[in-house]
Amino acid sequence: MNPILQTASKAGYAVGAFNPVDFASMKAIVRAAEEEDAPVIVQLSAKTVRYYGHENLAGWMRDLAENSPVPVVLHLDHGKEIEMIRRCIETGWTSVMIDASHLPFEENLKVSRQVLEMATAAGVGVEAELGEIVGVEEEIVVEEEDAHLADPDKAEIFCRELDLGVFAPAIGTAHGFYKGTPKVAFDLIDEIYRRTGTPLALHGGTGLSDEIIQRCIKLGCAKVNISTNLKHVFIDGFADYHRASPDDYEPLRVLEAQFAGIKRLVSEKIRQFGGSGTGRALASAM
Q1: Which of 10, 44, 86, 143 has the most neighbouring CB atoms within 10 Å?
Q2: Residue 256: pLDDT over 80
Q3: pTM for this predicted structure
């Protein structure tokens, strides 16, 4: 993930990071990226890893992306368990996230450094988080009054101490759909990126207006996460098909409807984030 996001950051676009829920949705993400000629990050939540297993997910990705003409990253999203992160690294994942943001700063730094050393030895990129992002992630709820934005002084120290592929500071966005107007701290994004030089991850990308997303990308966000939106398209694809064809019980046609909806969503987001047309050139440069 490191060279992909460094390139995106310097060129002024962002790479979409999408959370599939099965093989078909993973395939839809990769195929959309290939059609758009764009790099893409396929990221799995810890609960998805527990459901399918490290080896199965890594095997699916090898089947889908081994001969792909565009760069495809297999990334662990919001990893909190060291052993799970270790297994991802050992089974061929190309990037992992350590989310120790719930810990005091020094402990977060210590745990993140442990993961970075383990990952770097295997040639695997690392994402780490500072501050707590509001919303629901991995069944953990962070209420608005409990969330806190990343401190720019601590962010500078954090990124100086850790050579991260991407840094996820809490900047006012939220996981899930927004219940009101998000209060994105644009000045904070700008300051953190200027002081760290590290590509930033925009968590909580679902539901943000195009204006907000474009401004965040311009200020240094090179990775934009889309999870909740994809889950809704996945479920709605099934429900809408069955509603339109209540007597059709051929599962493959339902799966195809879900596949088409997810591929359409991913293509739209890739174009929105500005990555279209960059994939093959980036792959050849790597």
Answers
A1: 44
A2: yes
A3: 0.92
